[in-house]
Please model this.
Amino acid sequence: YNKTNLCWHRSPGANPYQSISHQRFYWEEPDRIDSKWKAPDGIHWICGQRAYSELLQKWEGTCTLGIIRSSFFFIPRSRSNTLGTPL
Model:
């Protein structure tokens, strides 16, 4: 498990990714298109209905960084009898 820390400073124009060395330049140079934009571990670029771990060079469009959570989970079969509805 890799822990990602975001830094929120109370000053105008503060870089929220200042503590993430390989991410901070994206905030400082948003028009930089000479390299891929890799998302931090556990975070994805969400672009409309799709999510990517990195954006390709010369990517165009609107995206945001976000966390994707599964809408389902697995439960051990031995514990399934304790649920209110049979599986």
User: Anything to note?
Assistant: The CA atoms of residues 18 and 24 lie 5 Å apart.
